[in-house]
Design goal:
The protein is an all-alpha fold. The protein is built from three helices and no strands.
Amino acid sequence: MHSTARSNALQESTIGLYKTELIDHERTATWSGAAEVERETAGWVQWFNDTRIHHSIGRMSPVRYETLWAASLTAESA
């Protein structure tokens, strides 16, 4: 698969998660406006990157995994 196709597939998958988890299922009422959607989206993105546990990367958040990976690169070059 071409890298652009992988990138597009990842974007589509993430957008699908966002729409399923926040837009469709988290709300029983309608959104009050763009400001509310923007605020809730920012919270969802923070959760997705900082808090969400991902099983394929050792049951840690993406941010934690990247922090450990970057530290390992620094240790290797020292």
